[in-house]
Amino acid sequence: MLNRYRNKRKTSKKQEKIVKGTQGSLTVIRSHGGLPVERGNGARKSEPSWCLAPVLGKPGDLVKIVKDHKVDKVVVALQERRGTLPLRDLLDCKFNGVVVEDSPTFYEEMTGKIPVTGLYPSSLIFSSGFKKSKVLLLTKRFLDIAASLALLIVSFPISIVTAVAIKLDSKGPVLFSQERAGEREKVFKIYKFRSMYTDAEKYGPKWASDNDDRVTRVGRIIRKLRIDEIPQLYNILKGDMSFVGPRPERPYFVEQLKKQIPFYSERFWVKPGLTGWAQINYSYGSSVEDALEKLQYDLYYIKHLSITLDIAIILQTIKVVLVGRGAR
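^ that's the sequence the OP posted. Answer follows.
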C-alpha cells in the first residue's frame, strides 16, 4: 500500500515531460527528468550549471515540441504568469490529452511534500484534498482505540522489563511527562519512558538530536527500538493523539516556529501522531530548517488524509523499527 503513494512520486521511464519556467523552479523539476523549454524572454547566453538537459525551444514552439518529443506532461514553473503564458498552446496541449500542471502540484507528486516557501494561501484554499469527513474521523478513532488497547496489553511484559532497566541504569522516575501542543494547539501531557538524565534541560528547552549526550545507556536502546514511546498508547486511548499524524511539538518551540515558518499553524488541524509521514521520510530534526522540511511532509499528509495512507505509514514504521533505524 505504501508503494501506491511512493509510485505517485516517481516518474515512469517512458514518460516525457517538458518544463516552462524560471531558474529557481527548474532546479527542482530538472532533478526529476524534465526537459526545459526556453524562458519567455528568449534570452539564453550560455548553458547554466543547473540545466542538465538542452533547452528544446521557445514557448511559441510548445505544440511542435510536444508533438515531436511525444510529451505526456507539461509543467508550468513560472513565478510570474501574467502576460507570459502561451495560453493558446497550453490549451492545444490540454485538449490533445497532454497533462498540464503547475510546479507546486508536480513537486508534490514527485516528493510527497507541499512546498511552503513562496506558497500563496490561495494555493491551499483552492487545492483539492484536505477533506475530513465524519466517517473518516470516526473510523480513525475506532482503530486508534482498538489498536492502542491491544498494544497496551501485548506490550505489558516489555514495559515491565523497560521500567526495571531504567531504574537500574540511572536515577529518576521511570516515566517522563511533558507538555505538547495537540490538535488546534490544545496543550496536553505526553508520556514516555524516560530516556534522558533528569537534568537534561537544566539550561532550558533544547531539541533532541542524533547522538544526544543527554540520553542514558538504556535510553539509547529504547529510543532506537521506539520502546520509549509505548506510554503514548495511553495518550492515544485518551484521545490526545492518534496513531498517525504530525508529531506533537512543545509549546515553547511552537511559538518560535510559527514566527519563522509559513503555514506552521496548519499542522495543528489534525491530532498529533505516534508516527507520521514526516517521520518515515525525514531524519531527526533539531533546527528550524528541519522543522520546515517536516512541515512540508505534514501538510502533504493532512491534504491526503485517509485510512489507506495511515496503514501505509504504520507498515513503513514497523519496517523502520525492525531494521533498527530508531526514532525520528
